[in-house]
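Subject: Sanity check before I submit

Could someone independently write out the structure tokens for this chain? I want to compare against mine line by line before I put it in a report. The sequence has 295 residues.
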Amino acid sequence: MRSQKTAHEPKAGINLYVRNDTHSAINLKWVFPMPDGNFSANIQSNLLHFISLLRQSVHNNPVKLSHSLLLTLPLWLAGGCQSVSGVVFQVSTPSHVEQGRVRASTTLSELKSFGDMGIGTFDRHDGELILINGDFYRITYNGDVKIPSASSSSPYAVVTKFEPNLDTSLPGPMTREQLERHLDKLIPNRNLFCVFYIRGNFRSMRARSQRASSGGSRPTPLQQRQSIFEFTDVYGTLVGIRAPEYLEAVNTPGYQFTFLNEERNGGGKVIDLFMTEGRIRADTRHERFQLVFPK
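---
Independent answer below. Compare away.
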């Protein structure tokens, strides 16, 4: 006898819209159940199946990629499926940018239409990008903080419309490692894509930024074009993300943080920190992940 699926069985899905030069389109959609078990293995195997469907469609109707890939994040929670909202919008991938293989493809005005909180970088990996409550800042190789124009572009960024569903105080002084462990305890479901907005006092902060990549077939390695900044007894803001492991093909699993001090004259991508007090806000209710393909 065939078993009947429950109405609340968690699912994940992928949408990909592509078109060719004659403007005929292929719209592929793949939705699959996510039963209990190895979550990452389930979604990765279904991603591979989706890619095979894409290859078959492209073979039958040659296309060029247009628009973006939309991955519906699985609503797979320890207590069952619940209603969530929100989109994580990502431009390209961090690995391509750090290797100098991607030029900017999305303007800041376009990014702002997808969110008001996020992190990233600028054309040719020239400086760090931080988006705080709708305002963009560029932290340069020299450590200066600039207000970029809306026409500035980014080859890599992750933004979202920030709607926090967690708001709590830091329980005590913490290193970066301790802070990440604390966040994991607050949000134990590692399948969630999380965005953080953290403000507070830091006894120490170590961050970096970088000058533009030389580009070409042999771009200058990141380690040879970065600057390190040290801050002590500073108040400021962290914007960060925690990417789930099943997205490791397009983002680095785990935490990424970018810092900006309260005076808006210093910051960078966080290497290490010691935080003494502060407020933690997090948005974990994302059900879609939209990726703009590298160019």
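---
OP: Matches mine. For the report I'm noting this point. DSSP finds four helices and 18 strands in the chain.
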